[in-house]
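Continuing the series of single-chain predictions for the mutant panel. This is the parent chain; the variants come on the following pages.
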Amino acid sequence: MTKPKTSDHPDLKKVNSNAAAVDIGSTMHMAAVNPDTDTMSVRAFGTFTLACPLLAPRS
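Parent structure:
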């Protein structure tokens, strides 16, 4: 049996270009931002408490 085609979905629209994405894993956390806003748009962080300030620095 073949899978039905999904090409009839509408195009995705950008909602907020300043939004970030965070992937929480058991061995590392990944954070991504719009590549136009930072020279390093994807970063990996450790999961231990000492790495938390690197993920969310205080201004």
